[in-house]
C-alpha cells in the first residue's frame, strides 16, 4: 500500500525490527520499557482506588473501635491466613512463570501461569464459603443484618461488614480479572508467542497479580486480626 | 541457559525467589500467631509493620523493583506520597476533633 508521493513516513517493512515490535516504537527495549511503565502507572491508579477504601476503613475503625473489634472476631482468622498463603504462593508461581518466559521455557511458563490461575480460583472459592457463612449469620449488610447488641452497637458493626464486603468483594473481582488476564496469556503461550526476546506481557501480568496480592496482604490483618488475644 | 541470563543481566535467580517466598510464608505465620498474643495497643502497629515488610519483599523482588528504571521508582514514590497525604491528612483531622457525641442507635 505504498504511496510515496503522499507520505514521508517509512513503511512498516520487515527489516524495521522484530515482528513483535509495534509501529510506534523505535526499538524493542523502548517498547518493553513503555509497556512496563504503563502498567506501573495503572497500578498507581489502582492504589488510588483501594486507597480511598482503606481511608474509609481507617476513619470508621477509629470512631468505632469496639464495634470493629467485635465484628472482626466473627471472621475466621484461620481462613484469612490460609487465603493469604494461597495468594502468596500464587505470586511465587507467577514470578517463576516470568522467569520461565525470560529463559524461553515454554512448558514451565504454561504450568506456572496455569497454577497461578488455579490458586487464584482456590482463593475465590474459599472466599465464597466465607461469604456464605456470613450470610447465614445475618452479617450481610441490609435489611436482614443482625448483630448482638451486647457485643457492640449493631449500626457500627454493620459499618465494619459494609467495608468488609466492599473491599474483599472488589479485591476478589480484581483476582477474577487477573485470572482472565492469565487465561489470555496462557492462550498466547500455547501459540508460542513468547520468547527470551519478547516476554513483557508476562512481566506486566505479573505486576498486576502481585499488586492484587499486596492489597490482600493489608486486608488480612485489618479485617481478620483485630485484637484477637 | 547461562547465555540467556547474561542477555538479561537483571534476571533474579529461582533460589532468590524461593527464599523470598519462604520468608513471606513465615511472616504470614508470624502475623497470624502474634495476633493471638495480647500486646495491647501494639498489636495493630506490629501487624501493619509486618504487612509493610511483606509488601516490600513482593515489590522489590517479585515485581522487580530492585532492578527497575528510575521512572518506575518515580511512579512508586509519587503513589506512596499521595497515599500518605490522603491517610495522614484525613486522619490528622479526624483523630484530633475532640469530643464527639456518641450516636445512640434507636431502640
Strand content of chain A: under 5%
The rounded Rg of chain A comes to 23 Å
Nearest-integer average pLDDT of chain B: 88
Radius of gyration of chain B, rounded?
21 Å
Description:
The complex is a heterodimer of chains A (229) and B (107). Chain A has six helices and no strands. Mean pLDDT of chain A is 92; it is low at 1-9. Chain A is mainly α and 229 residues long. The longest helix of chain A has 37 residues, at 154-190. Chain A is elongated. Chain B is an all-alpha fold. Helices cover 67% and strands 0% of the residues of chain B. Chain B is built from four helices and no strands. Chain B is flat, with a radius of gyration of 21 Å. The chains are: A mainly alpha (229), B mainly alpha (107).
Fold topology:
The complex is a heterodimer of chains A (229) and B (107).
Chain A: H1 28-63, H2 65-72, H3 77-103, H4 106-136, H5 154-190, H6 200-224
Chain B: H1 2-7, H2 14-34, H3 43-62, H4 70-94
Helix pairs in contact in B: 2-3
Amino acid at each position: 500500500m505504498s504511496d510515496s508521493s503522499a507520505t514521508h513516513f517509512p513503511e512498516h517493512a520487515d527489516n524495521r525490527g522484530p515482528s513483535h515490535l509495534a509501529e510506534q516504537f523505535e526499538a524493542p527495549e523502548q517498547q518493553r520499557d513503555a509497556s512496563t511503565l504503563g502498567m506501573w502507572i495503572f497500578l498507581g491508579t489502582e492504589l488510588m482506588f483501594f486507597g480511598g477504601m482503606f481511608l474509609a476503613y481507617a476513619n470508621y475503625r477509629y470512631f468505632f473501635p469496639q464495634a470493629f473489634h467485635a465484628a472482626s472476631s466473627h471472621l475466621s482468622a484461620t481462613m484469612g491466613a490460609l487465603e493469604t498463603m494461597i495468594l502468596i504462593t500464587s505470586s511465587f508461581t507467577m514470578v517463576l512463570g516470568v522467569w520461565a518466559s525470560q529463559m524461553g521455557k515454554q512448558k514451565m511458563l504454561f504450568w506456572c501461569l496455569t497454577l497461578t490461575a488455579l490458586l487464584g480460583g482456590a482463593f475465590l472459592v474459599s472466599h465464597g464459603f466465607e461469604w456464605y457463612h456470613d450470610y447465614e449469620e445475618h452479617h450481610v449488610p441490609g435489611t436482614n443484618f443482625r448483630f448482638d447488641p451486647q457485643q457492640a452497637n449493631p449500626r457500627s458493626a454493620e459499618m465494619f461488614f459494609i467495608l468488609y464486603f466492599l473491599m474483599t468483594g472488589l479485591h476478589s473481582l480484581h483476582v477474577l480479572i487477573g485470572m482472565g488476564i492469565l487465561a489470555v496469556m496462557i492462550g498466547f503461550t500455547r501459540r508460542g508467542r513468547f520468547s527470551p526476546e519478547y516476554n513483557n506481557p508476562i512481566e506486566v501480568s505479573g505486576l498486576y497479580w502481585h499488586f492484587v496480592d499486596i492489597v490482600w496482604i493489608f486486608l488480612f490483618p485489618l479485617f481478620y486480626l483485630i485484637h484477637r488475644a | 541457559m547461562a547465555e540467556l541470563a547474561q542477555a538479561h543481566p537483571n534476571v533474579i535467580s529461582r533460589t532468590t525467589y524461593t527464599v523470598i517466598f519462604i520468608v513471606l510464608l513465615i511472616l504470614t505465620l508470624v502475623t497470624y500467631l502474634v495476633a493471638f498474643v495480647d500486646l495491647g495497643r501494639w498489636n495493630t502497629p506490629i501487624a501493619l509493620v509486618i504487612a509493610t515488610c511483606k509488601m516490600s519483599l513482593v515489590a522489590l523482588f517479585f515485581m522487580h523493583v530492585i532492578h527497575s528504571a528510575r521512572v518506575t521508582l518515580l511512579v512508586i514514590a509519587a503513589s506512596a506520597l499521595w497515599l500518605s497525604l490522603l491517610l495522614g491528612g484525613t486522619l490528622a483531622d479526624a483523630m484530633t476533633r475532640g469530643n464527639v457525641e456518641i450516636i445512640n442507635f434507636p431502640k
